[in-house]
Write a structure and sequence with these properties.
It contains 16 helices and 2 strands. With 473 residues, it is mainly alpha-helical. The radius of gyration is 22 Å and the shape is globular. 53% of the residues are buried.
Length: 473
């Protein structure tokens, strides 16, 4: 029996993460800076919007996961969500960057919080069903890793495109006589429109091959579903890995623009680097180099995971990243060559952080089916999406709180040169280096104890085949 998925299906499925990742990356890197330096909200007050997002995440993600699991339609369980919500998802990204020009700090806070919640809900309505398709397309251990790698390539390519193009779009709007606010809205419209199309096409053309359509699943209460998910011991480890993993990624993404502008560029808010004859914003250059290396190393981590196993590959990648993360503290103002070297080295570990955790979760879902007799992809991917967004919102909250207490000051409107106090600069440097190191150590500790190896997963598959065969008799 051929377990290989066709190339076109992998390519189409992987492209779905372009929209989710590009919107997530733009929000991760620029949203905190947008709130403080463009909207002009005091950092500690702005962090409350992220806190409200955390609470809303906790409500909507598992609910949508459960709805996805229980959806009954001729199109399957996942495809209706993609067909219905792909384009509203793209439009919501425009609203996220469209804060009005109000004088009231409370009014601005309420607006950006509402916009965040709407965008978050629509992201969940497409992300959870999309991710839940992974175990329904293939049951093969290595094919799932391969499928995740296609997603990761699009994820990284979109992230690299965002960090390079988004600042260029904003600058172009400003040069054309528009405001920085209008620049962010334009960038949001471009990436929202492009990102919604692949999700819609997946809803049109991708079929769920291994969904348990023949089985009438027992309807159980929502709280009971969550309790059963928590009883899945391998899932607890996977959730822990995911939480620490994306906390580390988000710490770099959210705090590095502050680090680049106020430490490396010494307050030059329009600092640029010329690479191959192209003038790039400082943050575009750093993240562009890092994401380029990320993409290059995806085949390496895929090969490593197949030759050894996913967990060993992940531990190696995180160990390499820890060393680089500590070296970030040694970067001095104006030291561009060392900065770009660090960016390239960081890309190696970040690549492992992007590709390997998502390849673990489908195996956990198979273990759950063996244990409970139910396939609950939606609830697991709902919790996965919840964790992903919680880490982003949580890191934004913590970052803005630390900046506020350390004396960070929002630059005046139209300022091109602005310096921060030494206390704020030290806090920024610690967040991008040693605090990140501590988080990465957490990923290694949890991964070291992860209970599902390749051999154990093979046994799970054998038992599932027997159990499914008996259920059909």
């Amino acid at each position: 029996m051929n377990h290989k998925l066709p190339f076109w299906l992998k390519l189409l499925y992987g492209s779905g993460d372009w929209g989710i990742a590009s919107i997530g990356m733009m929000r991760s890197i620029f949203y905190a800076l947008y709130l403080t330096d463009v909207v002009g909200i005091e950092p500690r007050l702005a962090s409350l919007g992220a806190l409200a997002g955390i609470i809303w995440d906790a409500i909507n993600d598992p609910i949508i996961g459960t709805l996805s699991d229980r959806m009954k339609s001729k199109l399957g369980r996942r495809r209706p969500f993609l067909l219905w919500f792909a384009f509203p998802f793209g439009l919501s990204f425009v609203m996220l960057w469209s804060a009005p020009n109000w004088d009231s700090q409370i009014g601005l806070l309420l607006y950006v919080t509402l916009a965040f919640m709407i965008s978050d809900t629509l992201t969940t309505l497409v992300a959870v069903p999309y991710l839940s398709l992974t175990p329904e397309l293939t049951q093969d251990y290595d094919e799932r890793t391969s499928l995740s790698s296609f997603r990761t390539v699009f994820q990284l390519l979109s992230a690299m495109t965002v960090v390079i193009i988004a600042p260029m779009v904003v600058d172009a709007v400003i040069l054309g006589g528009g405001s920085q606010q209008q620049g962010f809205i334009t960038a949001g419209a471009i990436f929202g429109a492009i990102g919604s199309l692949p999700l819609f096409f997946i809803g049109l053309f991708v079929r769920e091959r291994f969904a348990s359509e023949e089985q009438e699943q027992e309807t159980i209460p929502f709280r009971e579903t969550l309790r059963l998910a928590w009883q899945n011991v391998p899932f607890r480890y996977a959730a822990g890995i995911y939480m620490f993993n994306w906390s580390a990624v988000d710490m770099v993404a959210i705090t590095f623009p502050f680090f680049l502008l106020y430490w490396v560029a010494q307050g030059d808010l329009l600092a640029k680097i010329n690479i191959l004859g192209v003038d790039l914003a400082l943050e575009s250059a750093f993240f562009g180099v890092m994401m380029f290396v990320c993409v290059l190393f995806v085949p390496f981590w895929l090969w490593f995971a197949k030759r050894r196993n996913k967990i060993q590959a992940y531990i190696v990648g995180m160990s390499a990243w820890i060393i680089v993360q500590a070296l970030i503290f040694t970067i001095q103002p104006g030291d561009i060559s060392w900065l770009l070297t660090i960016a390239a080295l960081a890309g190696i570990g970040v690549s492992a952080a992007y590709i390997l955790p998502d390849s673990i979760l489908p195996d956990v879902i198979e273990w759950d089916e063996l244990r409970t007799g139910r396939r609950q992809e939606g609830i697991y991917y709902g919790i996965r999406t919840l964790i992903r967004k919680l880490t982003g919102a949580g890191v934004i909250f913590i970052t803005l709180q630390v900046l506020g207490w350390s004396g960070y000051q929002s630059p005046p409107v139209d300022a091109t040169q602005f310096t921060q106090p030494d206390s704020a600069l030290l806090s920024i440097r610690l967040m991008v280096s040693f605090i990140g190191v501590a988080i990465l150590f957490g990923t290694i500790i949890i991964a070291w104890s992860y209970p599902l190896s390749r051999e154990k997963y093979a046994r799970i598959q054998k038992l599932l085949k027997i159990k499914r065969a008996l259920a059909k008799k």
